[in-house]
Write a structure and sequence with these properties.
This protein is about 35% helix and about 25% strand. It is an alpha+beta fold. It is globular, with a radius of gyration of 21 Å.
Length: about 400
Amino acid sequence: MSQNPNGPPVVAMVGGGQLARMTHQAAIALGQTLRVLAADAADPAAQVSPDVVVGAHTDLDALRRAAAGADALTFDHEHVPTELLEKLVADGVNVAPPPSALIHAQDKLVMRRRLADLGAPVPRFAAVGELADVDAFAAGTEGPVVVKAARGGYDGRGVTLARDLAEARDAAQRYLSGGSEVLIEEKVVMRRELATLVARSPFGQGAAWPVVETVQRDGICVEVIAPAPHLDDELRAAAGQLGLQLAAELGVVGVLAVELFETVDGVLLVNELAMRPHNSGHWTMDGARTSQFEQHLRAVLDYPLGDTAPITPVTVMANVLGAQETPTMTMDERLHHLFGRLPEAKVHLYGKGERPGRKIGHVNVLGAPAGSLDDDTYVAEVRERAVRAAHWLSHAEWTDGWDPHE
């Protein structure tokens, strides 16, 4: 039962970014208001929620103010120190996911060790305490290696794909000098990257969306094709089951994203975990019967979970990334032109200033209901429209050279 018997339940979310902003949109439809702990009153979620606590996620007092009277405290990002979350739990706060689960999304080394203990498929890896550990691992590895800071990295930060031993040593030294634990792992020879998105409630109910293909550029997700085309049925089922198994084994409450490598040999390996709504699930806002943001709220409030079925054969999400030079045309005018040419594009902007490479929004384009995921031409056409729309919004130029004045 809600802690607010005379009103709707209160969910507090740590972080005021775009994930919190879109979770607030889902909360409105459920008759709720998302409380947000934002670093700044101008943060994307703080712009739209009337219930904002301004403070740092490393400040216990700010966390307690955000959690006061809330039915659940959840996350827009995973960077809250575990020791602070343990204090909230001791205060009686319903932290979802709990810190015992969240640590596996905060610390890559903890995650790798736990997954290996569970028998989940992971790349071969080792902890690095000194440079000799890099030498020893590289000596037993035929191909290139990847060096990672155990904590704090995202969107390619804190990850070095080393071309040789010298670069691996340099990266390890840099991360160690920065105070981070470090791990080294084999570089996977992969066919592509996939992601499986699931949700789990405290009751133990689980639900999985279709496995998707993610397209990365410079460590940033630029495109998601949902469902993943040309995926073997056994791998498709295995990926979904793996996500549900990990959610249960780790005690996740809320949405769990499992980023995967599909190797050239047709094997799945776990790359990363995220215990919150995730970029790979943005397509669900328009392409699934229940969006990841509504599902996350359902899960942390222990509501029955929603239907995760896709509503069209394929949906493509393309991120809108800030251009190297911000266009002189306003975003409002760019929207006007986009809707004139691609009225079917579903646009989600985050209220963020434009700067090079920054995620400022995304576009979802749904394929025609009569199409087929097995039809390469059909899938390619949907992808082209999504990418064209996102590029127009970021650059104010059409990738096909179209000029409305000609």
